[in-house]
Amino acid sequence: MRVAVTPVRYAMVTRPVEASGRLVNQHELTLSFKTSGVVAAVEVHPGERVAEGDLLARLDPEESAAALNQAEARFVKAKRDLDRLQRLRGSQAVSEERLQNALTELQLAEAALTVARYSERHSTIVAPAPGVVLSRSAEPSEWVGPGQPVVALGLDAAGWVVRVSLTDREVVRVSLGDPADVVLDAYPGQRWRGVVVELGSLARATVGTFPAEVQLLDAPPRLSNGLFAQVRIDPQDDQRLARLPLAALVAVDDTQATLFRVDPKTRRVQSVMVPMEGFDDRHFFVNDAAVDRLAPGDWVVSAGAQFLRPGVEVQAEFPDATAAPTAAVISR
């Protein structure tokens, strides 16, 4: 049987990691009230820009004002009682125990007043920094509990990141600081520089992938949360690989590839299983860990392999294989 053959050449290969994800503000704040109450107003809507100190939402002040008045009255009474007992100190009418109890009551009243003032201040939500409103989770006349989300805010100063998911084989190759290219569907044909700024060390339980974030170093003037993005990360871990035509594949089992090696002297083929390190549109790649089974200068069947079986004699022309191998860049 006549077949085509190709020589095995190992070269240093750069293997980018490609992933897709969503563009989001790097820092997102979920703002809420400290106390429960009825929402009086929510002053902003999703997509609206706000400045530092802008009022975002407020509770009906009636309850917090009443609590503050009660705490102030208790504090005034406790202070008055203590002052009166201190004036009578030394007489038989006031015991030391009674005086200490009055002092304790004043301290408790002062602490309660501090809490009431703090709660009253936090019955409104203001923007802690310039940003954009991502969502509002409450409406006027609704009752909300303490800590219940009311407004989500994305901060401008933090910049933008693309959140992606990496497989276990990808995450071990990527490091913080690795450069990346980002393509946004909203801006077709344009690439933006990025860098890996966060790399998860714990896989998501549901899907088994690892979270990562790529920060945009430059970006278009107008962006929105949730834009779809494609990311290409360039890990600094070049490997020595052999690039072979996809037509040479006889079978693939997980990360193992089976192909036929040809002995130039006997012209007979031998089945060989080697570790596969990814592929592109026309080639697959073999790790040099397989050099004992597939050595530089060996020949593999690159066309007609699907019709062969081990030990078959073939006809093939063996071209000049002395040309130096070149570096390659592949996508997976």
What is this structure's SSE topology?
Blueprint: E1 4-7, E2 10-14, E3 17-25, E4 28-32, E5 37-42, E6 49-50, E7 55-59, H1 61-87, H2 96-121, E8 124-126, E9 131-136, E10 143-144, E11 149-155, E12 160-166, H3 168-171, E13 179-184, E14 192-199, E15 210-216, E16 228-233, E17 239-245, E18 251-253, E19 256-262, E20 269-279, E21 283-287, E22 299-303, E23 328-329
Parallel strand pairs: 2-23
Antiparallel strand pairs: 1-22, 2-17, 3-12, 3-16, 4-11, 5-7, 5-10, 6-9, 7-8, 9-11, 12-15, 13-14, 13-16, 14-15, 17-21, 18-19, 19-20, 19-22, 20-21
Helix pairs in contact: 1-2
List the defining traits of the structure above.
6-stranded antiparallel β-barrel, 9-stranded mixed β-sheet, 332 residues, 23 strands, OB fold (Dihydrolipoamide Acetyltransferase, E2P), 3 helices, conserved putative lor/sdh protein from methanococcus maripaludis s2 fold, 17% helix, alpha+beta
